[in-house]
Design brief:
alpha+beta, 8 helices, globular
Length: 248
């Protein structure tokens, strides 16, 4: 059996009922997320994420598929929402971060990817000094029931996000764009590799396409995405504050 860990995880193993797991402390942020400038979000997260982050669409296979991501920084290795060893207070923390050290991983048997995903845990967090997820009879504790609900609901919602991206790409609505900024103190910024919905192309959709977007509740997400692009100004402000603090 071959397990493919999600991005950011080092090595994951199947979760067993007799294992104890070191959970994240209150306010603790996984190491991989501390220097991450974009993170996947699911369909339900659009409303919460759009309050704080620009939401864009990215592709890692030259446009064959897309993913919705929240932009956290303006350059590689920059998370402008992580400081003082914690995520910024009163800012929504994406579920991709909150589920750590657990995940639902893809599994291959005899080189064939299985349809069902396996609940796994980051191996370094399997620790006898950690917390049990099940009681002595193998029954789930309340803590695990809450975590499992987050994992399963998030994974299902992530699939709906992938479906949305597939529909937007199929309808030809996504266009590449670059975020550019010139700084008063000199220098310029060019952030590339992002895609957004082309508003003009929305007007050219046929009745069947419009009906499908409405039936799946995607128009609301599209407009949340478009409105969230104003949050690039928030990122610029955060970078400016960080720069001034570093220079002080």
């Amino acid at each position: 059996m071959q397990i493919n860990p999600p991005f950011g995880y080092k090595e994951v193993v199947p979760l067993h009922k007799n294992q104890k797991v070191r959970l994240l402390a209150q306010g603790e942020v996984p190491e991989f997320a501390r220097k991450l400038n974009a993170i996947p979000i699911s369909l339900t997260e659009f409303a919460l994420a759009a309050r704080h982050y620009p939401i864009v669409f990215s592709t890692g296979d030259n446009g064959k598929s897309f993913a919705a991501v929240a932009v956290l920084g303006l350059s590689a290795g920059e998370n402008l929402f992580f400081s003082a060893n914690a995520w910024q207070e009163k800012v929504y923390v994406p579920a991709y971060v909150r589920r750590f050290p657990f995940c639902m991983a893809k599994v291959k048997l005899d080189q064939v990817e299985q349809q069902d995903r396996l609940i796994c845990v980051e191996q370094t967090h399997v620790d006898d000094a950690g917390e049990p997820m099940f009681d002595g009879n193998g029954q789930p504790l309340q803590k695990w029931q809450t975590i499992e609900r987050l994992l399963t609901e998030y994974e299902a919602d992530l699939e709906r996000s992938r479906e949305m991206c597939s529909i937007l790409a199929d309808y030809g609505l996504l266009e590449g764009f670059t975020m550019q900024a010139n700084f008063n103190q000199g220098g310029a910024l060019h952030l590339t590799g992002m895609h957004r919905v082309d508003e003009k192309k929305l007007d050219s959709l046929n009745a069947s396409q419009i009906k499908n977007l409405m039936r799946k509740g995607l128009f609301g997400r599209i407009y949340l995405h478009l409105l969230s692009l104003d949050n690039f100004n928030v990122l610029l402000e955060r970078r400016g504050v960080a720069a001034r603090q570093a220079a002080a």
